[in-house]
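The following block was generated as part of the benchmark described in Methods. Ligand: adenosine-5'-triphosphate.
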Amino acid sequence: MMWRTVRRIMREPLGAIGLTLVTVVVLSAVFASALTSYAPSKISPAERFAPPSLLHLLGTDHLGRDLLTRVLYGGRVALLIALGATAVSLVVGVVLGLIAGYGPRWLDNVLLLIFDAVKSFPTVMLALTLVTLFGPSLYAVVLVVMLVNVPGYARIIRTQTLVLKSAEHVMAARSMGASAGRILRVHILPNIIGPILILISMDIPVVVAIEAGMSFLGLGVRPPTPSWGAILNDGFANIRDSYWIVIAGGLPIVLTTLGFTFFGETLRDLFDPRLKGRS
Amino acid sequence: MTVLEVKNLNVAFHTESGRLEALKQVSFSVPANRSVGVVGESGCGKSTLINAILGLLADNGEITSGEIIFEGDQDLARLGPTAMRGLRGQSIATVFQDPMGALNPVLSVGRQMRDIQYRSGLSKRDKDARSVAMLRKVRIPDPESRLTQFPHEFSGGMKQRIAIAMALMMEPALLIADEPTTALDATLEVATIELLKDLQRDIGCSVLFISHHLGVIAELCDEMIVMYAGEVVESGTTREIFHDARHPYTQKLLACDPARLSQRVARLPTIAGTLPDLRRRPSGCVFQPRCDRADAQCLTTPPNAPIGGSHIAHCWHADVSLGAMSA
Ligand SMILES: Nc1ncnc2c1ncn2[C@@H]1O[C@H](COP(=O)(O)OP(=O)(O)OP(=O)(O)O)[C@@H](O)[C@H]1O
Ligand SMILES: [Mg+2]
């Protein structure tokens, strides 16, 4: 099953690119410490602004830190936040979506109103508001991601729940005395896992971009924790004489976003053509 | 003893374009160990009737009056949701039309059969043993090894038999079957009917069988009711109705049944006209706008004319027998 899926993805040109990029990004984040001999936050004033060389493949930044090392460890941070925040949004989105789809009509209407209200809030303003309230931190990033993702997840889960609610096997289970909790857990949720997984893979790049964007603006993870967005910001400050910093910060963001997007879209087209056209 | 007795049941749906009276003054009963068939064209309220009995009407539906007496002492029309849920799957079981959709696609058949028995208090092994016994009863070959398989690994007919096995697992007093054979081909249909008959005798339950296939009703059921636009227009034993139908609608239904046509015809006969809009019921007899026999009297509500035995026709002109039909 697994190998068949991989082969089917690899047959699509975009899928092949996506899967390769995702694999490279994930492996380099996981094995960051084995891939470099430098410590991510080790400052060495003597090597400030060193251009790319065999010693520092991507050069160093204004504190003399090895950029490749920071990119690799930054990948860890980005992926952990992406997976963690997506997982949290998913749990909340699934619970709300199931309630909206299966619960009473009035509750559905109230929840839809809330989803729309939250969704209509621009991401940047949301981020600024939350950071003003809680200060820049990892939690602010997770919270922003949640508020951005949950309404969308909840809506999709709600629609799927509504469809499945009148599905024959759900009616059959109801007619055989299954409780509402049982129906949601056993008969509805497992049947919407597929589209959910596809959604996740398509949303990871969005989260990576949010994290990078917030760190770029100084609203995300705090220094000296390495972050692609923060590297990019350093790069812009020094773009005239140290062009490599911008590249070191920008390239992983672009590659990760593209990789996950291609991968997710291929998965979606292969397994759930119904979701096609959803941006 | 009577397992189910429906008395003057009225069900309405609230729709955006007004109130829809889906069932009007429906009365019939299902005696112990008997099969009762319900026939009627699409939209006449067969599924609504079942859902009302099961307490599973859509959110916009409501039992406005009437009683649904189960096993002599419980009125299902007034039973709370928890008590109702306790009956479903235990005392009243249901099999639906679509064998493809009746099982959960992501769970193994064994798991689903075990789930049905969650109120039995048996151990997992004993539950599985009962599942195997039940699958054997519905003639699934090699049931032990098939417990771990998923619905898509079974054929349509097998899936329907598994659904039947699941319904009869807890030995219910009443089995409700909503067109359980419509999606099957003719040979499978016959086999499934035979199976249902055997199982009913085995378990000793009553069956309420919905179909728009008259031949199936004739084969399986002891008694039948004919529904039109949410009303019972004729009821009696299957024999009485097939041999001496008195309601014009029943007579037309029988005349249109391809299996009963004496000669080959180029076009199957149909009943002229369509079901009335249930939001605006015609006054008097519901069938009168489509009826050849309609006259001024038919604009007032017809009586339940007794024909003899348990046979009743809801018609002003129930004295017209169709001799030619029985040939
Ligand atoms: N939830 C609902 N809201 C409004 N009207 C409904 C609802 N459910 C059923 N109806 C209406 O009630 C009437 C009876 O429908 P029902 O599904 O019981 O018919 P049926 O005899 O089962 O038809 P079929 O043979 O096609 O299954 C139809 O006119 C239908 O449009
Ligand atoms: Mg129906």
